């Protein structure tokens, strides 16, 4: 639970009860041995202890009303905090991808330290695992997108004058590959590629998905291969890489996984 939760309790008691609320708050914090960065359980125990104390002073009904509202305030703040940092984690990771590419294991640790130093309250080991998982999910999304693009190109190479029946067969084949795309978006991608070929084919440059695919292959040849072990040992990622047309020649020569 965020450290500010302690201040929320203190300010709430001061607003609703006054100086007596602050005095009782301080005594309870000291009695329970709560530090400046309390855990969720410590905050819950503090609120429960305060509620019992105020019940003896003001009666159970009034005390329950006061502390029910306090709990709502804590839950609302807690939800906002983790939503904010959930976004911050993904934004930080995405910025790293854009600036430096796929993070090494040591760089994941550095990102975790940065987030914790900026207020994200999480066990460092758990946060590192979370960042690694988010990185792998990003790679899986990118690889699926790359596979989809290569499949569409292959389809149009073989069927430049495709019929609607040809397109429907192709769409059904893509569905079997479980690339997480619906019919409407898939048809839109096919049409965009068709139009690109019709009007701008000669000027085609290597697109982002091709660059991404090659970047992942390079991890397996990198001198820092051990630094990417959390990725290169993931069988789901390896399986997707082997399905990508751009990587076919690489996996034909090299045995991976």
Biggest β-sheet description:
none
> Would you identify the regions where 5 or more consecutive residues have pLDDT less than 50?
none
Gap from first CA to last CA: 41 Å
Share of helix, binned? over 70%
How many structural domains?
3
Give the helix/strand class: mainly alpha
Instruction: Report the mean per-residue pLDDT as an integer.
Output: 80
Strand content: under 5%
Question: Quick one: how many beta strands?
Answer: 0
Radius of gyration: 27 Å
Write the H/E string, N to C. HHHHHHHHHHHH
Overall form: elongated
Quickly count the helices.
12
Task: Indicate the topology.
Blueprint: H1 4-17, H2 19-32, H3 40-58, H4 60-100, H5 105-117, H6 124-158, H7 164-176, H8 183-200, H9 208-221, H10 229-232, H11 235-242, H12 248-253
């Amino acid at each position: 639970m965020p450290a500010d939760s302690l201040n929320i309790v203190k300010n709430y008691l001061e607003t609703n009860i006054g100086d007596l609320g602050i005095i009782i708050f301080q005594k309870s914090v000291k009695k329970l041995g709560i530090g400046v960065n309390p855990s969720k359980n410590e905050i819950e125990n503090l609120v429960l202890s305060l509620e019992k104390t105020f019940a003896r002073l003001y009666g159970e009904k009034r005390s329950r009303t006061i502390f029910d509202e306090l709990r709502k305030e804590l839950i609302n703040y807690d939800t906002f905090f983790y939503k904010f940092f959930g976004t911050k984690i993904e934004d930080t990771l995405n910025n790293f991808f854009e600036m430096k590419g796929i993070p090494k294991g040591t760089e994941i640790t550095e990102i975790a330290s940065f987030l914790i130093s900026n207020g994200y309250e999480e066990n460092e080991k758990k946060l590192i695992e979370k960042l690694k998982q988010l990185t792998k999910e990003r790679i899986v999304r990118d690889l699926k997108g790359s596979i989809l693009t290569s499949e569409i190109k292959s389809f149009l190479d073989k069927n430049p004058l495709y019929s609607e029946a040809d397109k429907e067969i192709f769409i059904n084949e893509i569905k079997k590959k479980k690339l997480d795309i619906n019919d409407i978006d898939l048809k839109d991608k096919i049409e965009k590629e068709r139009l690109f070929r019709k009007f701008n084919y000669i000027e085609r440059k290597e697109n982002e998905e091709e660059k991404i695919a090659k970047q992942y292959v390079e991890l397996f040849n990198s001198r820092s291969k051990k630094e990417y072990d959390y990725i290169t040992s993931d069988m789901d990622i390896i399986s997707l890489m082997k399905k990508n047309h751009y990587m076919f020649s690489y996996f034909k020569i090299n045995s991976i996984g």
